Amino acid sequence: MEFLNGTEPVHDLTYNDVFMVPSRSSVTSRLDVDLSTSDGTGTTLPLVVANMTAVAGRRMAETVARRGGIAVLPQDIPLPQVRATIGAVKDSHPLYETPITIEPGAPVAQLLSVMSKRAHQAAVVVEDGSPVGIVLESDTEGVDRFSSVRDVMQPPRVVLEEGVEPRAAFDLLEETRAGMAPVVVAGRLAGVLTRTGIVRSGIYTPALDATGRLRVGAAVGINGDVAGRASELLDAGADVLVVDTAHGHQDKMIDVLPAVVRARDEHEAATGVRVAVAAGNVVSRTGTLELVEAGADIVKVGVGPGAMCTTRMMTGVGRPQFSAVLECSDAAREVGAHVWADGGVKYPRDVALALAAGAGSVMVGSWFAGTLESPGDLIRDADGRLYKESFGMASARAVRHRTREMSAFDRARAALFEEGISSGRMFVDPARPGVEDLVDQIVSGVRSAFTYAGARTIGEFHTRAVVGLQGAAGYDEGRPRHTSW
Ligand SMILES: NC(=O)C1=CN([C@@H]2O[C@H](COP(=O)(O)OP(=O)(O)OC[C@H]3O[C@@H](n4cnc5c(N)ncnc54)[C@H](OP(=O)(O)O)[C@@H]3O)[C@@H](O)[C@H]2O)C=CC1
Ligand SMILES: Nc1nc2c(ncn2[C@@H]2O[C@H](COP(=O)(O)O)[C@@H](O)[C@H]2O)c(=O)[nH]1
Ligand SMILES: [K+]
Q1: C-alpha triplet 450, 455, 456: angle, nearest 5°
Q2: Do 146 and 173 belong together in one domain?
Q3: How far does residue 246's CA lie from ligand 1's centre (Å)?
Q4: Does any domain span residue 482?
Q5: 467 lines ligand 1 (CB under 6 A)
Q6: Do the annotations mark residue 306 as ligand-binding?
Q7: What are phi and psi of 213, to 5 degrees?
Q8: Which CATH number covers residue 11?
Q9: Catalytic residues
Q10: Are residues 376 and 424 both part of a single domain?
Q11: 282 pLDDT tier (thresholds 50, 70, 90)
Q12: Ligand 3 centre from 421 Cα, in Å?
């Protein structure tokens, strides 16, 4: 990346402080851009879902991996639950969406409680493993909640066989005006396909492990038996390990990281599978180099930009994220490592700018909390807008949860240090309720940014991006105006 006309910034920069100028391009189509990463995570999109309890659960992990990204399960989740979640992600179909299923005899009330969990917002009625009906959200309107699903379901208009040619499946759905179709293997339900899902499967490549199953990562903190938990996570099938703490450039991190790397190496020796280790968070060149020296393959960068994060207001500590990513990526590149730009991403442009600054991937938290696939419940506010709650991993709420096994005294002491908000509202965009809708938006923005820079790959984008500096008026000029002024 170079600054426009050789400008030297005199202060550190946020994403809003910068813009990119187009360069002559030989990339003639946005579809010629390849967004695969080279950080060892096996992702085909540079998107990582942040290890936050309100964001990264089973549905999020599976849905994002199917399109080429990866989610990191939070460190606060008990191991048996992490195992179950990784297992569920690995068991889900790499191509077909996981349906909401219900038995014909179940009450409609039960169906309504799960209907909003998936973006296709329809359920497959299953009897003895086979799809016998479909219920759309509209079928349940005005229906007695105690009536049974059997009374509201319709027979599936189309049932597809596994391996069906995508274009043929699309045409069948189009002809029959079916919103979605169950896909079966020997008559048993394997997943569902929607028209949008079919189009997506032609554009995206799932992030798959060596055995063809969807990838998912898991995080570990720096306290307790860190190497032990890391081994358990590897054993459970985690495809990337994230050693995560607020202040990543501290002795405890430098002490535990080599033990995690040893656990990873032992796992590699036993299985032949090498799992990348990410560690953070830092925002300086030295922090980056020292984490890489301690064994990190990937350094997670960002202190204070997160939407749920109050660190900068509480402590004055942090660093504007564009500059942090730029400096840390330069340092990481010198030693053959990679950076994840973590936090503060609110628009597709921020992802593009993080990649321009040199990030290998970009971590997104709160923005994805406001989707149907995040773990929280859908809530309606007084104006009828749907939202989900998000909260910071250093908020009182998360600390209470993380310290649940400590003594009352230690819990009270831990509760003093609060650096995150406990109840953010992330509104679900009615036009883009699913995380895949946001991924579509991000990826189309990023592909377009690459062609403006004349880059076909993330590596080329790092080299070719030309970045200029702007003030608040420059940023404001770029915003759309939805009403007259
Ligand atoms: N990217 C960011 O800006 C931030 C991210 N977070 C996220 O919150 C989650 C919880 O992280 P964390 O609070 O580190 O909790 P952890 O449970 O991981 O523990 C942090 C450890 O580091 C010690 N420590 C020393 N200095 C600090 C410091 N300034 N802030 C926090 N801990 C410190 C703590 O000791 P002691 O408690 O005795 O001080 C404790 O042993 C993580 O997911 C993290 O990524 C949190 C804050 C900032
Ligand atoms: N200072 C804090 N930072 C936090 C907290 N919880 C999460 N985080 C960081 O934010 C990113 C995600 O950023 P977002 O803007 O996409 O939401 C996450 O990966 C953490 O690094 C917190 O409580 N305090
Ligand atoms: K913030």
Answers
A1: 100
A2: yes
A3: 4
A4: no
A5: no
A6: yes
A7: -105, 155
A8: 3.20.20.70
A9: 309
A10: yes
A11: very high
A12: 10
Q: Could you report the predicted ipTM of this complex, rounded to two decimals?
A: 0.93
Residues 241 and 196 in one domain: no
Residue 113 has pLDDT above 90, yes or no: no
Residue percentage of the chain with pLDDT more than 90: 91
> How far apart (Å, rounded) are the C-alpha atoms in residues 472 and 477?
9
Domain boundary at 173, 201, 229, which? 201
114 neighbors 135 (Cβ within 8 angstroms) = no
**Residue 292 and residue 436 share a domain:** yes
Each residue of 415-453: pLDDT tens digit?
A: 888 899 999 999 999 999 999 999 999 999 999 999 999
Report pLDDT for 114: 87
CATH of the domain at 192: 3.10.580.10
Q: Ligand 2: list residues with CB < 6 Å.
A: 50, 52, 281, 302, 306-309, 311, 342-345, 363-367, 392-395, 419-420
**Mean pLDDT value of segment 31-44:** 96
Check if the beta carbon of residue 307 is closer than 8 Å to that of residue 4.
Answer: no
419 Cβ below 6 A of ligand 1: yes
- Scanning 103-237, the segments in alpha helix (DSSP H) are 108-115, 149-152, 166-176, 195-203, 226-236
Q: Is residue 89 part of a domain?
A: yes
State which of 201, 233, 262 marks the end of a domain.
201
How much distance in Å is there from the Cα of 469 to the middle of ligand 2? 26
Range of the domain at 193: 100-201
For residue 244 and ligand 1, the question of a CB distance below 6 A is answered with yes
In this structure, the answer to whether residues 80 and 192 fall within a common structural domain is no
The span from the CA of 166 to the CA of 43, in Å, is 23
Same domain, 279 and 331: yes
- Residue 483 lies inside a defined structural domain of this protein: no
Residue 22 is predicted with a pLDDT of: 97
Position 230 scores a pLDDT of 98
Q: Ligand 2 centroid to 372 CA: how many Å?
A: 20
| CA nearest ligand 1 atom 19, residue | 245
Is residue 191 within 6 Å of ligand 1 at its C-beta? no
Is residue 405 very low, low, confident or very high in pLDDT (cuts 50, 70, 90)? confident
Cα separation, 372 vs 386, in Å, equals 10
The reply to whether 328 sits in an annotated binding site is no
What is the Cα Rg of the chain in Å? Answer: 23
- Domains identified in the chain, total number: 2
